[in-house]
Amino acid sequence: MSLPDLALKAPLGRAVAALPVPWRRALALLACAWTGNVVLFASDWQAMFLQWWDSSTYNHVLLIPFILGWLISLRWREVVRIEPQAWWPGLIAFAGAAFLWLLGTFAGLSLATQLGVVLMAQASVLVLLGPRACAALLFPIAYMLFLVPAGDELIPALQTITAKISMALLALSNVPAHIEGVFITTPGGYFEVAEACSGVKFLIAMIAYGALVANVCFASWTRRIAFMALSIAMPILANGVRAWGTIFIAEHRGIEFAAGFDHIFYGWIFFAVVMALVMAIAWRFFDRAIDDRMVDAEALNGNALLARLSAFSMGQGRALPALAAIALVFSGWSAWANSLEAPVPARIAFPEVPGWQQVDYTPQAAWKPLHTGANHVLLGRFRDDAGHTVDISYALYATQDDGREAGGFGQGAIPLGGGWAWESSPAPLAQGHADRIQTAGPVHRLAETFYRSGPLFTGSNTRLKLENILDRLLLRERTTATLILSAEDAIPGQPPAEASLRAFLNAAGPVDAWMDRAAAGR
């Protein structure tokens, strides 16, 4: 018996042999396109997989490929009744996804690069299978977006919401409490709604689960939207109740008992309870019969709009090389831009400030801003004769890319995992971005952040990102600098933080010129 005969006797071989010839060719081309995507953008796929595997926030994504296979199987009998075709307008979508990936590499934004590679995989389906087949597979294709590990950006907002819900419930339960940002003080202790308590992991997983149930169990779009709203609101509200419960138990049983209870309950048990509650509420509203077809091939084949779109076809033999050419152009552009670095001095030092002297750095609570990947980092404390004290953190980067982002997530005045949390955003004293932050004690700080890149001087992280992206697009070599001026506040015997920062700014002169002198090493 020959090897081809053996292959056809295997389940997969029989399944392939049962496919219409056009589908065999189209799926072979799609497999080649996806393989090329994974090989060419291996670093992005590897980074995503490590997040799926290592981060509890994204462990649920490991199930997404299996869910995609199941969703496709529900539609497959109808899908194969549609003839696939190569479709050249899909190349525009593919080029747009590649451009998004390029911008992400230039901005050092992994979310954009990872979204870009997933969008390219989706656009490859559009190019190689055509609009009719993609309409039949629309939900599975869209569901691929959940492969992107996104959601950490919601943590600060969720911390604030959780803290406010907790305060409202503490008031209802007659527990006196005071809140500053995400820090809550009660007679029983001092509590922080930390990043791990934001509830982001369950919100993200619940959104993915909610989208799946909304598609499979509902036919009405009104009910789908209502179910998604419930899937978003329920974990947020439940997390606020959980945080309140921890504080409430601490008031009556002590902090150690409350922490132990929270550690045991807060996990997949908590998620399972929330998910079961959502399903219990929605169960009676399911309106899709178990034997309903997920798609109607006859209707799609007869759809006038899809017929007009299908007229823009191209030869299948040209589609795959076109995809490869676009991917190579953008990856080559990225490699060229990433090889550029602006020259920086061998060493830098703080410029002199009239009337101020550098003193030992002895903060009341440890504070060290994060400047990952910077070529030079300075951290020091300055004091004048009037007793004003200012801490200065300065970082100089030869370039901006992944792992070296001046304004990246968790960078700067509120370092990720540094024990400090955002409290409020007061008006800036100069042209920077001001934050009032707090750590256990409580100890408060006022910090103002400035960015400098070429002619740009700003406190806006968004403006910095846009300037960095433009530099990379135009292949310009420019340094980027970050300056953080900060002072501890409410310290007995010391001037207020705002007064100290104003005194330093008045003595130093224009901040952009001061940053330029530091970058020049003089």
UniProtKB/TrEMBL annotation:
Query: For the Methanolan biosynthesis EpsI domain, which residue ranges apply?
Result: 323-510
Q: Name one GO molecular function term.
A: peptidase activity
Instruction: Give TM segment ranges.
Output: 26-45, 57-74, 86-109, 129-149, 161-179, 199-218, 225-245, 265-286
User: Where is the protein situated, by its record's location annotation?
Assistant: Cell membrane
Q: How is this protein positioned relative to the membrane?
A: Multi-pass membrane protein
Where does this chain mainly localize? membrane
- What does the record list as GO biological process? proteolysis
Task: Please give an example of a GO cellular component term from this record.
Answer: plasma membrane
Domain of life, per UniProt, equals Bacteria
Keywords on record: Cell membrane, Hydrolase, Membrane, Protease, Transmembrane, Transmembrane helix
Record-given protein name = Exosortase A
Q: Which organism is it from?
A: Novosphingobium taihuense
The record lists the lineage as: Bacteria, Pseudomonadati, Pseudomonadota, Alphaproteobacteria, Sphingomonadales
